[in-house]
Structures are given as structure tokens and as C-alpha cells.
């Protein structure tokens, strides 16, 4: 109905309208898509997915080297942090070879005191504890076998 109305608006006589309706058969044949075309499109999408995953992997590795905008080999290292409230925190920070306790609030940072190196439990001590746990776990696992 809509096509006929469009043709009426474009034509000036009824004879032309009838000729156009008779001649406007469905000349367009739907394009056949073969199975191979579908498989090739799927493979193309798979390759694009793999490229995106590789790019994401290398991007995360590059970003993982920097810790919050700081390099891992920096003179500043946060050893431990304790949240007091939503906007207040105590942190033990290693600055060069000194350990400092800082109070960090929403708008200010306050120096509290300096600690001796032997008073501070670092991640290395924790890693040794993990290794001893692994040894104990292996012993238990060995007894079950």
C-alpha cells in the first residue's frame, strides 16, 4: 500500500502507474551466505579477540610495574597501614633506611614517630612464615599419601 502511494505521488497518469507496478517485480535476490563465509567471520572475530586479550595482558603488565604512580624501586615504601576510621589511617612507611609512622587524614599528613628497623615486621618475615606453612602443608600431604 505504501509503495503504491509513493508511485502515485511520483507519476502523473494511471497508465504509467500500472506499467510501473507491473515492471516492479522483486528483482533483488537475497544474498546467500555460505557456511564458509560464516566460519571465516567467526575466525576473524576470534583473531580480534586474541589480539585484544594480548594487548590487555601487556597493558596490565606495564601498569603493574608502577604502583599508584610510583616505581617499585622508589625510596618510599608503605610497609603497613591501619585504618582508624573512614578518613583516618596510620601508616608505617620506609623512607630510604628509616621507618616512620605517619597519621594520614583527609587533608593532612602528620609525623608521629620513627621506629627502629628491628621493631618492624616487614613482608620478608611474612614471606618466611608462608614458606614454613608450605613446608608444614607438604608434610601433612606426605602423611596422607
Topology:
Layout lengths: L1 H9 L3 H10 L11 H31 E2 L2 E2 L4 E10 L2 E8 L2 E7 L4 E7 L7 H22 L1
Antiparallel strand pairs: 1-2, 3-4, 4-5, 5-6
Tag the structure with descriptive keywords.
145 residues, alpha+beta, four-stranded antiparallel beta sheet, 6 strands, 50% helix
In short:
The chain is an alpha+beta fold and 145 residues long. Helices cover 50% and strands 25% of the residues. Strand 3 (76-85) and strand 4 (88-95) form a beta hairpin.
Number of helices: 4
By DSSP, the count of extended strands is 6
Task: Show unreliable segments.
Answer: none
The chain-level structural class is: alpha+beta
Hey, roughly how much beta strand do the residues contain? 15-25%
List the secondary-structure elements in sequence, H or E.
HHHEEEEEEH
Q: Please bin the fraction of helical residues.
A: 40-55%
What's the Cα radius of gyration? 36 Å
